[in-house]
Design goal:
144 residues, homodimer, alpha+beta, DNA-binding, two-stranded antiparallel ribbon, 5 helices
Amino acid sequence: MFGFSDPRPDLIAALEKGGYRVTTPRRAIASLLEQKHEGFSVEALSDELPSVGRATVYRTIKLLHAAGVVCKLAMLNGSHKYSLCGVGHHHHHTVCVECGAVEEFRVDAVERLIRQISEDISGEIVSHRLELYVNCGACPANGD
Amino acid sequence: MFGFSDPRPDLIAALEKGGYRVTTPRRAIASLLEQKHEGFSVEALSDELPSVGRATVYRTIKLLHAAGVVCKLAMLNGSHKYSLCGVGHHHHHTVCVECGAVEEFRVDAVERLIRQISEDISGEIVSHRLELYVNCGACPANGD
DNA sequence: GTAAGTAGTGCGATTTAATATCATGTTTGG
DNA sequence: CCAAACATGATATTAAATCGCACTACTTAC
């Protein structure tokens, strides 16, 4: 099995490392996030944190995203979800189209493939995105 | 080289095949599209067609997308672009992060890889998305 | 400890992309 | 030519995200 459940990255540490202050709102966001390994939308997050302004939630998620501890996923319908993710290793995600559950996976073959393609197209690959949309078969939408 | 420039798909034919009427606004959209193999936003398209209502442009692009002759690409920044694309064969895209030029490519290895991954993760893969963000090295932004 | 400076916050307005509403216009089959 | 079905367009609306700005709260210097 390629999937793996990540050790929770330390969001507070990520902020400190980036030279950002660790404030009460940021703590609140971080601790809520740590209960939400699955995909979440910033909007929903904000709704669960009425004590924190929306803009601050967006700003903080952007910081965490820049710090690499939160990933931004493109859903099929064009909306986005975010997900906590392990630092330090590149990975991709599966998203259940029924229940929205997000899982990370890493397959070295993906990286090899990208490298191989990069030799065959003109220009230099600066980034890539690979997302798998699945039906996880274990979600409420499947009759549990 | 994996890339290929597609024969222009016949957008009008695609509409007819889908059982939709071929109307004046749709003709206008189709003929503008056929000059725009590169990525484009619906917004920009609409601006170039003042005689056609915004809603109609969106509706028509959605039809063409459903018909498979137009692809919707997710940009790194979260916005979208559309691109004419060949019918009948699955492919992926490179997008130049500087100039926005879109190219199609197809590598069978991608499909093999997806199939291989599908055997190793729980759940069933219903769809996937692979986009390569490149610096095409031949665009105005690179000093031409 | 206080003043000054910097970083962070929150409200509300704004932007942008896209969709919904719905009265009106167009096409097509007969 | 008529009626039904389909398509259109102006406008309102929604949703996600960002911006502007006054205010607050740390941090540092003195």
